[in-house]
Fold:
Amino acid sequence: MRLERKKLIVRKKELSEGRWTYRVFARRKYSTVDSIAPIPCAFCDLEQRCGHTALINPSRCDKLTEWLVKTVGEQAGAA
Structure:
């Protein structure tokens, strides 16, 4: 009941084997590996040397920048 009040789950009343019970469903849809696979950082060979203070970092990554521009362009075109 606490999770339902926090709107994390939904309970659906149903009859199972002659008894009333509740089936519980999560409200949040969880991400899949497919949703992050296109991100260049996910399988980058420079990942071990990449970091905020390192010479190689996300703010200077050409692969990441190209992917972000492409993704934003696709979303703008779909809207």
About this structure: The chain has three helices and two strands. The chain has two domains: 1-28, 31-79.
